[in-house]
Amino acid sequence: MLFNSFDFGFFLVIVYLLYWSIGVKRRKEQNIILLISSYIFYGLWDWRFLLLLFLSSLIDYTAGKGIDSTTNNSIRKLYLWGSIGWNLGVLFVFKYFNFFIDSFSSLFSLNLTENEYTFWNVIIPAGLSFYTFQTISYTIDVYRKKIKPTENFIDFFCFVSFFPQLVAGPIERAGKLLPQFKNNRTFNIKESKEGLRLILWGLFKKILVADKLGLAVSIVFSNPENHGSFTLIYAAVLFSFQLYCDFSGYTDIAIGTAKLFGFKLSKNFDTPYLAKSITEFWKRWHITLTQWFTDYIYIPFIQKAKHITNSIRIVGLLLTMFLVGLWHGANWTYIVFGLFNGIVLGIERIPFSKKKTTLAKKLQKAPRIISFCYVFSIFVISSIFFRSQDIEQAFFIIKRIFSLTIDTHISSLIGVKLIYLILLIIAEMITRSWTFPLQNLELRFPKIVRWVFYYTLIFFIIRYAEPKEAFIYFQF
Q1: Residue ranges covered by each domain of the chain
Q2: Which partner for 266 in 170, 235, 254, 342 could form a disulfide, CB atoms 3.0-4.6 Å apart?
Q3: Low-confidence winner among 88-97, 105-114, 142-151, 430-439 (lowest mean pLDDT)
């Protein structure tokens, strides 16, 4: 069930009415409704993976209680690594097994047929990388004594499977989201209105911007050999905006949907293309994932060193970004995407003067246009790896771009539909101090103007709602 489908609209209305109609003081019953709804939502993707979601929830719930039940450090570590081992094992089997076997056979020139090394041919469970990372962070935080384990298994199962953010984040920490299931929620009409506006803005980003850009991007990346340098650059730029609008659009819908039920989810994007360096970019892009890898990979790695030097930090960055790339998928394109960003992050932190001035610090003081061109160019280059079908195609596209081949296909790739992207850029630039562009419309415009705007936007969204395209990050 896609967020940009009419099915989800009907599903959301039904759950919303059931949830609030039973009364605001019946927290347990509300959580049960959310849990059942989340499992129905996930089951409609593929009911076979419901058991996997249930087992992950059960194992991590048990591990959290087990860690807290004893002071014996060996037993506590056993529960911790049992939880981590289960989650990483599930990720490996479903997402990486065939990739590693294939890479191994290619490395050693083994003549294996697909049937000899393929463990099983199944689709990757939707949201697997998101909810496994969410539950891993819970177990680690319990082990570190940052949070107490929850005693109520319904609350915990809701935390893992909460349908607004189940399949593509944000990756929530238990310390923030779990208490919201433990406390009574009160109906707030203002929050519901803001939630609906967020959903509307997210649908605009997805349907009218991302999906339309995706049509042009697919034409070019499916046959890059038929296009010249400028068309390939143009397609890479369009994909950068497509990726942003697709994923941030999902996040807006997820946060808006959660607001309808009285929940606050974490901000996941903060105008990343306005960052002044790649270091700052990764603090604004997919914020919850960056924070996850910072807290559970980067910081523990550098703290293991006897002396934390700049070299240790750079190695930590490379390791972290390698894993960020691998997290996105079992393909060398994602690994190179991560390493490329890691190398740039490392370069930005290398001091090049006695005053320990770094490129990142210089860029903060540079004119906005210079820093924007730098950040956007770096991300466009890395996005070529992200979008390409394989590593050979990525290098072919980059080589062809630098060949400076001229062609005339650009104007036919997107046409007047590019106006939606232009409108989005203008809206987000003007309202960048707001949480999202539609946030304060009630304070700025009379009711009649707002409703004309809403219905016009809804009309165009419905007009272009078919065919429905899945969100890019659902595959991760």
Answers
A1: 25-184, 192-463
A2: 170
A3: 105-114
From the CA atom positions of the chain, what is the Rg in Å?
23
CA 283 to chain CA centroid, nearest Å: 13
| Tokens coding 196 | 């609906």
Residue 389: count other Cβ atoms within 10 Å of its Cβ.
12
- Rounded distance between C-alpha atoms, residue 363 and residue 372, angstroms: 10
Question: Which tens digit of pLDDT belongs to each residue from 363-409?
Answer: 988 898 999 999 999 999 999 999 999 999 999 999 999 887 777 65
Question: Please, are residues 19 and 263 in contact by the beta-carbon 8 Å criterion?
Answer: no
pLDDT for the residue numbered 408: 60
How many C-beta neighbours within 10 Å does residue 430 have?
10
Please report, for residues 29, 56, 76, 149, the alpha-carbon distance to residue 71 in angstroms, rounded to integers and kept in the order given. 35, 24, 7, 14
Query: Which has the closest alpha carbon to 394: 348, 346, 339, 347?
Result: 339
For residue 101, the 8-state DSSP code is: H
First to last CA, the chain: 16
- Mean pLDDT, the chain, rounded, equals 88
Q: Give kind and range of the element (H or E) at residue 7.
A: helix 6-21
* Active-site annotation, residues: 328
Could you give phi then psi for residue 298, rounded to 5 degrees? Answer: -65, -55
CA 139 to chain centre: 21
Centroid of chain to Cα 5: 20
Q: For the stretch 403-424, what's the b/e string if a residue is b when 16 or more beta carbons lie within 10 angstroms of its beta carbon?
A: eeeeeebbeebbeebbebbeeb
